[in-house]
From TrEMBL:
Database matches in InterPro entries: DNA-bd_dom_sf
GO molecular function: DNA binding
SUPFAM superfamilies according to UniProt: DNA-binding domain
Name of this chain's protein: AP2 domain-containing protein
Amino acid sequence: MKFNLTGKKFGNLKVIEKSDKKDKHGAVFWKCLCVCGRYTDVRTGHLNAGTTTSCGCNPGSLKHARKGQERPEYRAWLAMKTRCYNTNSKDYENYGARGIKVCDRWLKSYKAFYEDMGERPDGNYSIERVDVNKGYTPENCIWANKTVQNRNTRKKKSNTSGCKGVHWNSGHKKWSARISVNYKRISLGYYDTLEEAKNARKKGEEKYW
């Protein structure tokens, strides 16, 4: 090959590799990744001439592009897919291995994800599933801060009470209630009955959250 465009950027397109596609004239095409998340095959001449600089999604109008860096929404989209489908991901055990999936609409298109979720409010927010036992869909996802996420965290496998923040303490022979606030664990006391511990946890949520 006399030239190699792999890795080069043309507007909102980044060349990934040479495509197998060819037109009737034998023109060379390149597989490109648009900032919106879609792949497209573009002729060499169109890239070099600057006549094709995106997949056609007009990402500028959707604020998909940001000078010199990826949008946080785009990083969230990539991370979401990684933890659900990349078996080498450290988070796969808690997502993909549990059957958590990304809906087809989002899996195939960052543009669709962005249209449904909109811009992230600020740096304290990340994507969160309302029902942690269901997948990533427009109906089940919100942008949430740490407080909401702590409240919504899936119960640990070691939890025997069926209630987050409540567990049996074998040392005290009682039910323990606790809550995490700003990364600090606060004890809500020890109780003879599970119901008392659950009530303490509920009051703790009302007080601290």
